């Protein structure tokens, strides 16, 4: 049985009272270590068919959103985010791929990273490969890219710790020599393995025994986390009711 992961704003019984622990988040720029360049202005520059990054996960984590470095002060970019689990990392990486996450939201503002949430957190599996990408029909005021390509420039995969960065894509294919400046937004903090879970008040989507959740409690090492937690969490699928859970400390980060 494959266990699930949840990123939840949870009410946890700790230190003698109920406390609210919002889910924390970290960001990882998919930066190949090369200069980022301003390529075009007032152009869609390939985002209508999607521009993305290919990576292999080097540990498991929960992906909650993506960010794109762009300038869109005058007109918002109505972006769609897509996350694919892929079986090939060169050429047409969508061949045999499975869509595992999606989200929509506007990109608008000065030149910086603009984040958009996924509709639901995606469990990124250690050792698996993924494509993350942005699509939108509008023209951005400025489009910035990395010159990053194993074929044209001989660039090797880049070890970013959490992931191994492999290549950039346009239209789901790595046959281009630029890569978009994308960052991963992922949950962090204390993680717990659920030992008991009970639905209350009509909730039908409570975590099961063996699933994990992120409390959002800050930590640097696992010893910073409470050994055990218990309490109520809102129904992960929304709607009425809640879940009563008990969990045991599993990891930090």
Protein model, in words:
The chain is an all-beta fold. The chain folds into two domains: 5-24 and 190-252, no CATH class; 31-180, PHR domain (Jelly Rolls, Sandwich). Helix content is 0%, strand content 60%. The protein is built from no helices and 18 strands. The protein has strands spanning 5-7, 10-14, 17-21, 24-29, 36-43, 51-57, 61-86, 98-124, 129-135, 140-147, 158-159, 163-170, 178-179, 182-188, 190-200, 212-214, 228-234, 242-252. The strands form two sheets. Strands 4, 5, 6, 7, 8, 9, 10, 11, 12, 13 and 14 form an eleven-stranded antiparallel beta sheet that branches. It has a seven-stranded mixed beta sheet with strand order 1-16-15-18-17-2-3, with no helix packed on it. The radius of gyration is 20 Å and the shape is globular. It starts with a strand and ends with a strand. The model is unreliable at 7-23 (pLDDT under 50).
Write the layout of secondary structure elements.
Elements: E1 5-7, E2 10-14, E3 17-21, E4 24-29, E5 36-43, E6 51-57, E7 61-86, E8 98-124, E9 129-135, E10 140-147, E11 158-159, E12 163-170, E13 178-179, E14 182-188, E15 190-200, E16 212-214, E17 228-234, E18 242-252
Parallel strand pairs: 1-16
Antiparallel strand pairs: 2-3, 2-17, 4-14, 5-10, 6-9, 6-12, 7-8, 7-9, 7-10, 7-14, 10-13, 11-12, 15-16, 15-18, 17-18
């Amino acid at each position: 049985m494959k266990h699930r992961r949840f990123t939840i704003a949870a009410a946890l019984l700790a230190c003698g009272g109920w406390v609210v622990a919002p889910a924390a988040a970290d960001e990882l720029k998919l930066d190949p270590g090369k200069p980022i360049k301003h390529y075009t202005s007032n152009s869609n520059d390939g985002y209508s068919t999607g521009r993305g990054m290919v990576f292999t996960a080097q540990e498991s984590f929960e992906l909650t959103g993506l960010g794109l470095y762009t300038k869109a002060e005058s007109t918002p970019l109505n972006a769609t985010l897509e996350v694919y689990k892929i079986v090939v990392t060169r050429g047409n990486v969508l061949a045999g791929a499975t869509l595992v996450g999606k989200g929509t939201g506007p990109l608008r503002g000065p030149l910086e990273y603009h984040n958009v949430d996924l509709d639901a957190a995606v469990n990124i599996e250690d050792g698996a490969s993924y494509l993350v990408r942005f699509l939108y029909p509008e023209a951005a005021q400025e489009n910035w890219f990395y010159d990053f390509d194993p074929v044209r420039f001989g660039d090797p995969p880049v070890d970013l710790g959490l992931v191994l960065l492999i290549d950039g894509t346009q239209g789901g294919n790595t046959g281009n020599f630029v890569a978009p400046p994308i960052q991963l937004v992922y949950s962090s903090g204390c993680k717990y393995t659920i030992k008991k879970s009970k639905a209350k008040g009509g909730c039908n989507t409570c975590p099961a025994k063996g699933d994990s959740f992120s409390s959002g409690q800050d930590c640097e090492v696992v010893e910073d986390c409470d050994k055990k937690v218990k309490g109520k969490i809102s129904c992960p699928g929304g709607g009425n009711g809640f879940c009563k859970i008990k969990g045991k400390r599993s990891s930090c980060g």
